[in-house]
Amino acid sequence: MDEHLEETMQNTVDEVSRNIVELDRVEGDLEVKEHTTLKGKGTPAKITVSGTVYVEGDSVFECSLSAENMDGEDDINVEGDLEIANRVNIEDGRLKVSGNMSARQVNVDRSVEVRKNFEVDEVDIGGSLKVDGTTKARKIYVGGAFRARSAVNAERIEVGGSVEVDANVEVEDIEVGGKVEIGGGKANRVDVGGSFISTKALEFKKIDVGGAVTLTGENVGGDITVGGSCKVKGNLKFDEIDVGGVITISGSADGTALDVGGKVKVYGDLTLAENLDVAGTVEIEKELSARNIDVGGRLCARKATAISKVAVRNSMETIEGVHATSVTIGRRGRVSGPIAANDATIGRRAHVEDVHADTLTLERGAKAENLYGKNIQIESGCQVYGEVQYTESLETEHDIRFAETPRKVDKLPLAPETTQSLS
Q1: Rounded to an integer, what distance in angstroms lies between the CA atom of residue 413 and that of residue 408?
Q2: For residue 86, what is the DSSP state?
Q3: Side by side, which strands form the sheet with 383-384?
Q4: Rounded-to-integer distance, Cα 326 and Cα 283, Å
């Protein structure tokens, strides 16, 4: 039977019955009925088909297979390499390849599993895609889950469920409904509904995640928008970050602007070319610098510098002080550490330590340690525990308690050296 098949299969459709068949090269198309096992010839064993392979389903190729196209139903297992010049189309089934797989276009209803390398122009899978070797594709569409154990290079990855890549990626666009975990690399645009995790250094242009983001290593990119939390296990260079909840950075961060609804925690330096806007708490282990700093809750840093203004509504704690063109402390705010500014306003019933400013205002009921300024205005009910020195004017209301009589001087003491000169 085998010899007959080899002699007559030229430009014809060969029907292989439900048994074990050994083939070498087929000129034309090959039709394989269900529950058929095919063996190839040569070392390594291989079947080469010049046309299309039609598989009715539940068939096994115990060899490598090369063809122009593959059309099939149900489950197909290729125990060697699968080389398809044009398209693979499998309805209501699964495709499993033990070796390498290459094709121009792959459409499979249920799942594809490739044990070695996978190279395709476009793949569309209804269920899941699993690749143990490297993946190279222009577009990857998966309805369920995409799992890759080695590097992935693609123009676009669109997955309804989850993506997990153990190695680095190089991708233009990732759009995933659920969770993504990659091993670093380059992902220009990331759009994830659930969570995004990069276990190694990542280069990116834009990350937009509904849940949580975790980055690891030396990360360099553009914008990050996160509905929940953002955690960076390392350093981060960025453009703008908008986080609804909490952002934690174990190293230093250098960017343009940071807008956070909850809390900011940075264990190194935080340097911003523009604004820091935080509704809750800011904790910077080392130095904080920005054009504008606006904190709704508590600000804590070794040193805080703003080219323009600092506004803190609750409390502020520094060791080397805060230095800005304008500093505003909110009502009942508490400040630990010196303040140096061109213009400083201490809100009602706030409590501060030393303040150095050209124009300085203590609003009603505020308390301070020492005040040094050109022009100082102190409203009623205020208390100064130390000294008051001014060079031009002092305006006071009633019921003010001074530990020492205010003095007009020719020269004020130098403000603490909190930073280089303001721009």
Answers
A1: 12
A2: S
A3: 367-368, 383-384, 401-402
A4: 21
* Segments making up each domain of the chain, as ranges: 1-106, 307-423
One-letter amino acid of 333? G
Report, as an integer, the average pLDDT of 387-413.
96
Residue 30's nearest CA partner among 58, 71, 87 is: 71
Higher pLDDT, 328 or 3: 328
Q: Which of 243, 337, 325, 245 is nearest to 290 (CA)?
A: 325
Q: What is the pLDDT of residues 49-97, one digit of tens each?
A: 999 999 998 899 999 999 999 999 999 999 999 999 999 999 999 999 9
* Average pLDDT over the chain, rounded to an integer: 93
124 vs 82: CA distance, rounded Å: 17
The token pair at 288 is: 């904080």
Q: Which one-letter amino acid corresponds to residue 34?
A: E
Nearest of 157, 326, 349 to residue 335 by alpha carbon: 349
pLDDT digits (tens, 9 = 90+) for 97-108: 999 999 999 999
Cβ proximity of 201 and 221 under 8 Å: no
Q: Which residues pair with 327 in a beta bridge?
A: 310, 344
